[in-house]
User: Fold these one by one.
Assistant:
Number 1:
Amino acid sequence: MKNKLYYGAAYYPELWNSEVIEQDIQEMLRLGINVVRIGEFAWSRMEPEMDLIDLGFFRRILDRFHAEGIDVIFCTPTPTPPIWMTHGHPERLHVNAEGKRMSHGSRQHCCMNHPFFRERCRIIVENIAKELGRHPALIGWQIDNEFHCHVGECFCDTCKSLWPYWLQGKYETIEALNDAWGTDVWSERYLSFDQVPQPIPTPFYHHASLTTAYQMFAREKVAEFLEEQADIIRKYSDAPITHNTNRAFKLDNERMFKRLDFASFDDYPDCDSYEDMLLNYDLFRNVKPGVPFWVMETSTSHNGHLHGYMKPHRNGFLEVEAVAAYAFGAGGFNHWLWRQQRSGCEMTHGSVLSAWGEPSVGYPGVQAVSKVRQALEPLILKSEPQQAEVAMTYSDRARVFLSTESLDRLNYLQLVNRWHSQLMWAGLHRDLIFEEAVLDGYKLWLTPFVPYLPQHLTEKGLAFAKQGGIWIVGPLTGYRTGEHTVPTNAALGELERICSFHTRAVYPISGTNAQGVAFGVRAPLGYYSAVFDETSNTRTVGWVEGGVTPGAAFIQEVPWGAGKIVLVGSTPQGKGGDEMLRAMFCYYADKAGVSLRFHSTQGTVVAPRVGEGRIIWVVVNMDGNGGSLELPCPADDLLNGGTVPAGPVRLETYEYRVFGLHS
Amino acid sequence: MKNKLYYGAAYYPELWNSEVIEQDIQEMLRLGINVVRIGEFAWSRMEPEMDLIDLGFFRRILDRFHAEGIDVIFCTPTPTPPIWMTHGHPERLHVNAEGKRMSHGSRQHCCMNHPFFRERCRIIVENIAKELGRHPALIGWQIDNEFHCHVGECFCDTCKSLWPYWLQGKYETIEALNDAWGTDVWSERYLSFDQVPQPIPTPFYHHASLTTAYQMFAREKVAEFLEEQADIIRKYSDAPITHNTNRAFKLDNERMFKRLDFASFDDYPDCDSYEDMLLNYDLFRNVKPGVPFWVMETSTSHNGHLHGYMKPHRNGFLEVEAVAAYAFGAGGFNHWLWRQQRSGCEMTHGSVLSAWGEPSVGYPGVQAVSKVRQALEPLILKSEPQQAEVAMTYSDRARVFLSTESLDRLNYLQLVNRWHSQLMWAGLHRDLIFEEAVLDGYKLWLTPFVPYLPQHLTEKGLAFAKQGGIWIVGPLTGYRTGEHTVPTNAALGELERICSFHTRAVYPISGTNAQGVAFGVRAPLGYYSAVFDETSNTRTVGWVEGGVTPGAAFIQEVPWGAGKIVLVGSTPQGKGGDEMLRAMFCYYADKAGVSLRFHSTQGTVVAPRVGEGRIIWVVVNMDGNGGSLELPCPADDLLNGGTVPAGPVRLETYEYRVFGLHS
Amino acid sequence: MKNKLYYGAAYYPELWNSEVIEQDIQEMLRLGINVVRIGEFAWSRMEPEMDLIDLGFFRRILDRFHAEGIDVIFCTPTPTPPIWMTHGHPERLHVNAEGKRMSHGSRQHCCMNHPFFRERCRIIVENIAKELGRHPALIGWQIDNEFHCHVGECFCDTCKSLWPYWLQGKYETIEALNDAWGTDVWSERYLSFDQVPQPIPTPFYHHASLTTAYQMFAREKVAEFLEEQADIIRKYSDAPITHNTNRAFKLDNERMFKRLDFASFDDYPDCDSYEDMLLNYDLFRNVKPGVPFWVMETSTSHNGHLHGYMKPHRNGFLEVEAVAAYAFGAGGFNHWLWRQQRSGCEMTHGSVLSAWGEPSVGYPGVQAVSKVRQALEPLILKSEPQQAEVAMTYSDRARVFLSTESLDRLNYLQLVNRWHSQLMWAGLHRDLIFEEAVLDGYKLWLTPFVPYLPQHLTEKGLAFAKQGGIWIVGPLTGYRTGEHTVPTNAALGELERICSFHTRAVYPISGTNAQGVAFGVRAPLGYYSAVFDETSNTRTVGWVEGGVTPGAAFIQEVPWGAGKIVLVGSTPQGKGGDEMLRAMFCYYADKAGVSLRFHSTQGTVVAPRVGEGRIIWVVVNMDGNGGSLELPCPADDLLNGGTVPAGPVRLETYEYRVFGLHS
């Protein structure tokens, strides 16, 4: 990939005639678009009939773009198999949990595990990689697109036949599975792997271990499909490979990105949900350390389909969305899509140009982004995001556990979104990291909402604390085993045994009117909770008042080496709970010696970067209400020139500033 | 049909013994019932076993009614095939969009397109037509009943096999279909017609063109079934033919009524939803110009089934419901049903008599209607409804488009209901007309919520304006092609090209806080919207304030010949929006020289009629709150005698007056 | 069963190793647990492979319990067939009304009527009965568990094939069925029994008679399965047999308990829904007169599963739950469950011990119950519940009718719950009784919400009134026949004919703004209602004001012999309606000479018992707010000693007192 700050759009030349394509290229040049993403839905143009593969059209398109200096990300077209793949072959179609078989007419309707589908995917991918792998316009690959954005686990006969083999690979003997899962409950015990059902309809809920295992199985199979494509591409191309993912899809992102070269995702915030967008930046920046991530898709104004849309962005938002993306670590920022679809089911989706070739409602925002991209490019290319001192684990596996066992109808994404936001509004710079990430450089580590704490995480946390770090464990962490059962050695399993704290009870505290008191704040407690007894080697910092266990602890410190482990057993709720979370985060950030902190009003964020020996703060008003930031020292104004004294800086609606700090 | 004002009820002699039937006839005579509708659910009585057809029972029933001077509408019994039709033959059953196959036990469970079902329908209809077609009691035919009231499109194998032929008939070549639909999106492209799926479950929404086409296909097939029956009946009978329809069912009423002789529909308002009932009168009056429509079914007090019912009418409502029906053009007003069902799933439905033969809660209302029918008959028979000067297009095809693409979860019926009501409360007499209706005699024409504006409509509108008419186009009109794609020549397609206005953008304005200001009224704007730029040949009369396109136009006039075209690009919302609509309607009614206007309080309506050289106004308080009307000139009180001076006339709760205007 | 007051828990030794089992037994002894329930989910432990039956494990477990003096209720394991029952045999699985076939992985997934399943059930039950039928630890049997707690009627092919035979057994000829059901409606008429469908999906609702009959069929089949097991057990054991039922399941409890020896049920109130729990005590006490019922399952604090839980009880509630149970007639009070499940789908359910062997959050409550059980045992064993003078009929058949025809979305359980609560808060002691119960000893009898009043009930009521009793009939009673059709002789059928009152109309009064005025109270009226005309032999005590039948009666007395029949035609709503109900109950209790009445504050209840020639009142504050009771005479304080004077007695939060009344 070239040393550029990329701004681009998804482009579908297969949908338009050559005259329109030429108009589009001219308009791209006028707008400063320097990259397009192509190909992910174009299989029927590449191979209209089976084995009739012709990629000439796309090679010529890449030639044209290259001639104009526009780079290309090319995608494999596997999300949209042509009609010859499935017509007359229902056995190749995805079947959902209700037993409903999908049909051609949309996308992702094939079972990804069907051998014929897989074979045809290998063939088309190999052809593309051969034909375009060394094309000078090509700067990167995207494999497939938004895996599982419309579908979840598949329940077709192919998957049914693969499932016992997967189980056998994991458990070796059926006795081991029965023991691990505890299948004597309700006489579920199996005599052979082929008897273990897919979690299809049954009178009540399926066994938790089964449901969790099936989700893991499905996620592994997606990853294998991705890896298979990556291996083929690498034979013919050195360009870096990514997948356009999204946290909301049913995937194991940690596993998937191991075999990829850079991170990318789609992101469709509306202008009032920018906090979760910033979480994505804080997470995907760390997926491939040192490699910029891409916002592979974002709307110019609103997304839309036949039956709804998000409200269009307020004017000014798109510009700060892009500024924040680049500042927090994006190397590319791409719109979906260049030209409004003239047909299909996404005709109302925002775009750069309308279907009739005129500027869309989002066009002025695109012009503004193009301008600021140019202004930022030298600053961004010569610096890189500063590592945070605070890390929070983000786990797709934890999400699976909370999907199998939602307890208070918990939603993992909403839970971590809230914690992330409160970290942000506590003024703490933060990295979200996958389970296997190393903790070097961090001082405070949080692992909330991780029902199963694998041994390697526990060991990592203990070592981290021993060396002076503070590890905040919980809430809703450690109360399940890796097999999705209840620990039988202690409420919170191995951690409780090692650290010698004592859980008094684990129970649903919601509805009992229990209040938590900690860090000078009082808030209602909720969700499935662990409450603790005071012991000689623990220090209680949060107490339960009222409810059925008054006087119990719900936040407790266990001193550990030079640091400590902080057990958070229950979840403070509501506005008071937010306040308590911020107070807790600040308290332990202080204790841990976290120095990278910001004093800004809520709605205004700071992206710290390091480059050429100095610290750069990109400050952005994200909520459109304006705000202010306390500059800790004088700073150069890197966009407008001049020097700004230490002290408060005011930002207007959707204003952003770039400061080079003195010191 | 005789020169009578009809009042009747649905009657099911097949459910009762001869003693009860005789009691019923005597009670009908006492009540002044002069017509009954018979036969629509009686197939198993006519043909209890296949080919064992005996219509003697019904012939004798018609003899009895004829002897008593009660006329009969006879129905074909095709909505309720007997058990021998489907037992052991699942392939003859309707299959819904979820793939669920219906069973015997209710009605409409057969696929209407199955050849065996169709053959048996032809046989029973021919037998009935032969046996009863010249019976002196018979004054009309009803084909089937409430097509598609419980089911929508069918997805059975018969329909699956017919679908490619229908497509081929329409597109001739698969290339033409691919081009028209734009199937390169998501690689949906088809190689042959038999590959085009029915819109059964797929991971996301189906292609809009496919979904719209399948709905059109299904509606055409219903119409063909109707036409087949009509053709058979006409061989043996001269009595006029109708179908008992309802706007809420999934039908193409415009096509269906082309081949029928008079319009009829069922109508189950509760006493607070009379506005939509009046819309039906304003529409069906114009379906067969010059021929009175029939309210073929309405409750005496409330409808009901096993799991719910509407609230019973307030006392007095039934009387004004009938008065309004007759005054607005009904030739018949029929209850469903005469005697409460003693079994089945509609036992709680209101009726004239209870299952045990006593007056129901609705009986006093029936007595009142019978009395007023007699009083009105001479007035109604010697006059006819006055044509309106304002017409609004009602389109089942538009409804299909908004079903395929509901955008803001729009409901076509609610949208047009609202516009109709505001026309009414603006004091404008109005006709609702189908797409192909001629515009002779109208001065103001509205085509709101018609996503696709066919060429013939555009041409009609331009000619209408050229000759001095005002055509109000939109909102939500013209932004799609007939293939349910986006126009690529201009935002609003051909109309925009011809009239040379300019759409700045089409986007969802909901949620952006945009306000519309027009005709001195301010209101929030909502729904998918087009906003316009001011050009040399347009005059802006409604501006957008706030939101993402402040300063754009949302109502714009294009002068055209002696008249003008008024583009309405967005939908004003809420009470302010209602006020804006009324202001706009009055403004353009003034401009267009509409003279037929009423000044009455909301809830009180006027049905204008012409007869024997004078204007008759039937004034009815519909809401039960009383109201008043400004008489423009002195008038004769045609019900009570005497003369009433010009000026305000007060109406009490559910009062009605009939005035012969002096002028 | 021994002369003990039992306190126990459900125990699953098959899930734990011998070391854990020994710890559990020791803890049970410490806690005073004197009974465990075992076996209902253990089939795969008893017969891991087909015909490999070994009950040695359970015999040894019973030996151990017997050695420790802990008695055992043993269950047949038929709710959880092992995998060999269904793997490869989809035809043995339950199919729900939507046609969805269940799978192994939960419980109750087999069709109970499948011959192979039934054969295997007979074999395992016979083996168990033989092996354990005379074991000295065994004090009782439970057949299966919570029939139909997760499933409703089955629609599999086995059930499809049994259904015509059941119909033939009931109607003999298809003509009789057609006549009884009135199948001429919608041409539904059948030519043979095998044509009558199961109520699977059809375009609208099925015929009411069909839906009701299918529910009756399914309930009879469950009862037959139960009876089959009971017959086998009785061959080898004299221990009494029960089933653990619940009013919410789809069962005919009256039929089922005829062949059982004692009543038992599960009950999972949260601490704020204790009123419905008390209804269970008032009902199941009377199911097997003279035999104590068992609360076979109740939580120690909260129930729970993968996706939710009830809120834990406030501290103190569990103790009064147990006191109320024993006082109102329970001989046993059992928790579900002893040790938290470590796997499956109920891991979050409250228990006595946690999965890791420590006291749960409910443990202190269990300690308290154990203590009070000891204190109460001598008092309870030497007395028995006092019969009430007020009886209300509870009918699972009525529930079926309201399920088939829910009218205003009525829920039978909620309707009777409300009437029971208002009886309780009117200070009336009450028995709930099944339809066939005798009325000896009662003075006031209520039959609300019984759509079909069988002849034997009518005759019983007339005889009861003749002899001086007061029979309150309605609301929603008597308006349907036993075939679920409308009576054709009179609105309320035979009763109306015999008693010569006159129903003016039956209609949905909801939404008409009708008010009821009776007993000095005014309240809105709702639901499907009958209103009456005043006749010479009736006395109106409740009038309708407003609505569509102003001036009609809705409560009317018919003097009958020495007593009277009170017709209640409509349901008073809201708080005013509650007040009217209490006023009506008190008024007729006075008229009927009901003397067993309490004056306590709402939330505090009295369980009257008789023993050793005196009256004992167990007074319990159930709502946790404290309360008071007016003692009608001095009394001995049987728990704390001393004498308490007549007059008000104050109870604190969750306090209970036991008084031996003087006189």
Number 2:
Amino acid sequence: MQRALSISRQNFPEWYQAVVRDADMAEPSPVRGCMIIKPWGWGIWERMQALLDARIKATGHENAYFPLFIPLSFIAKEAEHVQGFAKEMALVTHHRLKEIDGKLVPDPEAKLEEPLIVRPTSETIIGDSFSRWIRSHRDLPVLINQWANVVRWEMRTRLFLRTSEFLWQEGHTAHANSEEAVEETMRMLEQYRAFAEDDVAMPVIAGEKPANERFPGAVATYSIEAMMQDGKALQAGTSHYLGTHFSEAQNIRFQNDSGELQYCHTTSWGMSTRMIGGVIMTHGDDDGLRLPPAIAPRQIVIVPMLRDKPEDAQVLEYGHALVKELSGKFALDEKIRVLLDTKHIKSSEKRWNWVRRGAPIIVEIGPRDVANGQVTFMRRDMLRDGDKVKSQAMARDEFVAKMPALLEEMQKSLHAEARTRMDSNIRSDIKTFSDLEAYFGAGSDDDAGEFKGWVRAGWAKPEGAALDAVDARLKALKLTLRNVPADGMKAGGTCIFGGGDAKEDILIARAY
Amino acid sequence: MQRALSISRQNFPEWYQAVVRDADMAEPSPVRGCMIIKPWGWGIWERMQALLDARIKATGHENAYFPLFIPLSFIAKEAEHVQGFAKEMALVTHHRLKEIDGKLVPDPEAKLEEPLIVRPTSETIIGDSFSRWIRSHRDLPVLINQWANVVRWEMRTRLFLRTSEFLWQEGHTAHANSEEAVEETMRMLEQYRAFAEDDVAMPVIAGEKPANERFPGAVATYSIEAMMQDGKALQAGTSHYLGTHFSEAQNIRFQNDSGELQYCHTTSWGMSTRMIGGVIMTHGDDDGLRLPPAIAPRQIVIVPMLRDKPEDAQVLEYGHALVKELSGKFALDEKIRVLLDTKHIKSSEKRWNWVRRGAPIIVEIGPRDVANGQVTFMRRDMLRDGDKVKSQAMARDEFVAKMPALLEEMQKSLHAEARTRMDSNIRSDIKTFSDLEAYFGAGSDDDAGEFKGWVRAGWAKPEGAALDAVDARLKALKLTLRNVPADGMKAGGTCIFGGGDAKEDILIARAY
């Protein structure tokens, strides 16, 4: 049987690399840990940006842009924050090159007085602006978002999932009190949940991270966690309530109604190019990527079957007319995105390229289609009937008329498929640590492991050293605490870690 | 007379700073030479991105993303290129901080083997990809664009116009021969011209830069030059034909029809946040910014006159209904962008804020407007009648119906105003260097100078040392060569620099 990929999901890590490569999404660069995002991968990011940006704006935030560099002294102001990031920072120390002994080197005379950090996140540099912008309670809330590149030096990288440079949006807000700041934190968590589910068709569990997984400097960190097809969890977005930690470190204060100076309560929240890795591992199959129509750069790709013969002109004309007609229609509240692929390569090669890239609808038109006024197409979400590729012919007018509804149906169907997988693979019947150990298998290689999914269990919410001990026991099983689902206690009972009565549920999983 | 700004264009440099500050566009950051782009400034940039991006895609280019960092050895490959940039590079030398003697410093054990350069431009890192992507003539052309931040260390900075970090797009293409590469270079120059004139309402002269103003490593550099209201020129976009310089340095080759390996001909072209400075200096007046509707983040801003009285509710309701109605209409091929400004500040303050920010239409609605079913509004492009602010009342339905045409008219009228200024201030009657000297005044302070505009004169197109000599003579007058207008020789005659017969016209001007 011919597959569009040479590797199946049986070997999940290699399959992932194959999709990234063969769907032309990204490739490693000669710069350690930095990736090159190729046009198809970038197109998916542009779609995600457009959809999430609309949500960010609709909830009252404004975009702005802050410097790439952060003075070392800024980042050192918040103690936990600098501890959390100090080990993975790119440091700029010079601003000029000089030829010395025939070799170009940093010019010793152009050494910076204070090193600059390439932003790993922008709480401190944006907080500095907040401290100047905010004077009175009338200036609050301040609701800012930034789309930017950030750098966190990584030794072991994986395209999209963990790279030294990545792209993201980071929201930063300041409020008059904790209630409003917590409300904002939860509002943006909900936006991430809705974005993941409705736009990316990726079901997630939203909840609070345990203390040991908090953002450095946060009072509370919330996440959305998605289940990949190998059963591992992917943290796909985080929202942090920062309390007054950063305000105190940076003197972000406002005069309240009674004229007293008070510290602001701040939040931050981010979603990154990591999400693209999540799309691959949620929707991909053994033929490559499958894209939910909402984030597909091209929703319908038309491959003309050209044979260097006179009838080619008619086929192309038919294709162009089809593009024009489809482009005028709307699906998922936007104009349908159609491409006629006129590259000078074989049409069968084109077809497989678009299968691997996951274009939702792939149309092939040849002289016979033109003659019959029909369209032959494949649905990428249901590519095969058994082993065979399934394509269907439809009268052209019917095809055009049906596309809006079909694209919307595909969006829902990909979501439903992933939802079923997640929902049916969160076990809440594992009640003791030894059962947990027996289920996941102590110390098995997480990459080669069979599909296990997640465990949802009650826990006593240990703190400090007790939490560290739990973390260490899980680590030995290559497991991590994901989050405390926001939908309340369901597994309950006694603490799976032996800490007495459960106070809340927590998700336990292997993770990216 | 009350003005929205405290400084008039009489003092142009200070006026510029005042507009940037008082229109809430940008501010200096604590990081040397880096700017903070505030929401209104960023909104203008988003508009420019959307409009230029559409042009870039419509001409067949695809967006992608390449690493922020460039290995030092890459940049050193093209000799002129590294010479041109070596003096203004931010160098990353370490990847970790360490506490030594109670102080956080770059960890000596985390020193990079090879320093990384924060990209000042991406020819070399993208060229490296091209050398891997391109094998055969069937792979050509490769047409890539990237939206990114870049860093060129600057000692004397001015917001938007010259900053160490700035944002831009950079196009990079590879072709089979010089004809196609030159054609691409000119195509993108034309896109910049059309973008500047039609979208930004900024008239420009497109032409080739003289050899001494070429991009480091280019065979030919073309630019669009715009005239600011102080008469100076602003280079607002450049397009470079790079020949095989970068291909040879980076081994970007393809197999031609006959199976022989040949070097690709490459191009690059860029437009940056500098353009925002150009918008200010082209369209601003003594009340602040005036925005062409196509690039205005909000084209119509409605200020409700609220008085903390019961009738406020009706005014707000009227405002919301107006927003809804206007938002459903199209102008300049896009939905009209409307804002109801509900901030808790005085409505007169709001009005002046929007005047300074240059919102094209500013509407004020109070109880009387509601009662009469009318709208009172100001056109920002014609704010005053003599010294008085001019506002007009119009029946609500008529107002809504007229907006699309009015916004389009304002776009054209701002362009026409700037076009007249430019066209009537390019002198071509100055024929000798001594006349040039007399006109501009030797060594006068360029910032305090009176309006002079540009001179278009014939020149003999000197090269090498002769060109350097011309450059030095002009420099003494604080003048520069801008470009050779693409519309042919009009001034002609003999060379203004005394080099015999003129071969072509060249623009001479003070410049940013």
